Amino acid sequence: MTTIDYLVDDSDIDVPIDDRDEGERRAQELAHRIRMVAVVDPEHAQRLVDELIVALDVALGGTFSEHLDGPAREAAERVIQKSRNGHGAGISPLGNS
């Protein structure tokens, strides 16, 4: 260690090491914001989550649910299917946006 290492307290610096860390930080912030909305308006929060699922599925070329397991995968597939049928999620079905 150098003398400067003893003088600088960098414990409160949150600098992402790479793009993945930045993405994780942003995802955590988004989750926190959705939780805050859910406290006030659970139905609105659910619509936001559903829209996010559909948008991620579109962005990933229809493969979003393949990245999930168990109940999360089943829930995502239900939301995606509803959207593809033109129901729910609040955004246009695939191919109609």
What would the keywords be for this entry?
97 residues; disordered C terminus; mainly alpha
Measure the end-to-end span.
57 Å
Which structural class do the helices and strands define?
Answer: mainly alpha
Main pleated-sheet profile: none
Order of helices and strands: HHHH
Radius of gyration: 19 Å
Please indicate the percent range of residues in DSSP E strands (runs of 2 or more). under 5%
Number of helices: 4
Basic shape: globular
The count of β-strands is 0
- What low-confidence regions span 5 or more consecutive residues with pLDDT below 50? 92-97
How helical, in percent, are the residues?
A: 55-70%
- Average pLDDT reading: 80
What does this structure look like?
With 97 residues, the chain is mainly alpha-helical. It contains 4 helices and no strands. It has helices at 3-7, 19-40, 42-59, 70-84. Helix 2 packs antiparallel against helix 3 (42-59) and helix 3 packs across helix 4 (70-84). The longest helix is centred in the N-terminal third of the chain and has 22 residues, at 19-40. The protein is globular, with a radius of gyration of 19 Å. The relative contact order is 0.09. The model is unreliable at 92-97 (pLDDT under 50).
